[in-house]
Amino acid sequence: MNIALIQAAFAADDINGNTRIIAEAYEKAAAAGAEVVAAPLQAVCGFKPGRRLQSPAYVKAYCEAAEALIAATGSTLLVFDIPLALRDGGYAPLFIAARNGQAERAAGRLAFQLPDGRKALVCAADEAHVHTEADNLRPDLLLLADCHALVIDKEAERDRRLLRAAAAAETTVYVNQAGERDYHILTGGSAIFADYGQKRTGLPLFAESLPHGQNAAPQIAAPSPAGRTKPDHTDQTALIHGALACGIRGYGRRNGIKSAIVGLSGGIDSAVVLPLAVEAFGADNVFGLMMPSRFSTDHSVNDAVQLARNTGIAYEIIAIEPLYKSFLQQLAPIFKNTPFGLAEENLQARIRGNLLMAVSNKKGGLVLNTSNKSESACGYGTLYGDLVGGLSVIGDLYKSQVYNLARHLNRERETVPPNCIAKAPSAELRPNQKDSDSLPDYDLMERILRGHLEQNLGVAELVAQGLPQADVEKVLRLLRNSAYKRLQTPPVLRLTDTVLCDYQPF
Known about the structure:
Blueprint: E1 3-5, H1 15-31, E2 36-38, H2 56-71, E3 77-85, E4 91-99, E5 102-107, E6 109-113, E7 119-124, H3 133-137, E8 141-146, H4 155-166, E9 171-176, E10 178-181, E11 184-187, E12 191-194, E13 199-202, H5 236-254, E14 260-263, H6 268-281, E15 286-290, H7 298-311, E16 314-317, H8 321-335, H9 342-363, E17 366-369, H10 373-377, E18 391-392, H11 399-409, H12 418-422, H13 442-455, H14 459-464, H15 469-481, H16 483-486
Parallel strand pairs: 1-2, 2-3, 7-8, 8-9, 14-15, 14-17, 15-16, 17-18
Antiparallel strand pairs: 3-4, 4-5, 6-7, 9-12, 10-11, 12-13
Helix pairs in contact: 1-2, 5-6, 5-11, 6-7, 6-11, 8-9, 13-15
């Protein structure tokens, strides 16, 4: 059976655009000889329609779009869904199997016959386990529709559930959205399973893949044979790499942005964000700005330059000392007779933030923020300084994950200079400064944050696990007290279900 899958990201604010993608994909697949064309969950209405479902105009629009798709079908079967409002205020997918301008419909799951008389069942991928009809019916074709966004530590178990579901039918089709929508990374990885789940042919993760016109339709409309491999959902760092590059690219495309600006300090965070930006936009469309101060070390500047050369981007070095002196001179009436402190440190970061935004305005690129989850959780960043930007790339990664990603980026050739990985992290805003002067050890801090954010553990429970009470209390206090900063920082690409902007103290 020739089956074509529509793997793309669908926007909840663009029903016409969604319908056009589905219609064009269907037309190409049908012309190439496909017997079935399957769209992912929420393809017509768009990913996470949310409160839009309360709008009669919105509901009318996607219902009309569905009818137009049905009317345009020929002998090739088109399978898709639209939301159906429930009495409790929720909604369920109304699955539609359309052919020759006619359609069968059912909420939650749809059992129907294929043109050749074989039995088929379509349902949401996450609900496959509750539809015991799949076991009783033993469908010849099981269609699992999805719109799954990445949750990094749950992907391996999710893939195991998919494999178990695929064992229910001779042929199982899994079709998922792929791309960035509302800072979520839709994973893609659509697949066809044959022989009751024993054989798997898959589309790439984190990449759009649409049917294309050919003389003979492939079983899956894949862009290249390279995509036809079983994804490794256990390699979390590889998944993070693919997801973040996809997120930057998708966010840019969604907002009409084709280039990026990255502030390069020689530290590990910007050393990881820059290669991801290059992967998303291309080296010619990424600009690096280095802004050393009187406290910047020579090796940091050299590391930043080496990083820029490794990635092939254009860059500029603008020393901030003249601006810093000018600011201090203007502030002298207020700062006089006070010791050097936080105000003088943060002033450097805010000068850099101004320069980055000025370059962004002049060149038109998106400033990518380089703050990580460990630092953001503890408020270790300067508002309107190093926290500026239009998108937070690694804001859902702990510091240890940033280091792992740096090593992963170097797996084939040196991209991140080794010294960026080896040296102790420092903001370099005062002489001989290290992050450890203000924060607990990053590994300890991550254990505390993971226990609190992911397992909902309080102080007593964390201390009972052997974590130092003083450090636990400090980290959780910083987490609570820095919430106001996180409300004023760029949106974060989501990799987990514990994104800090959603954090509510308990």
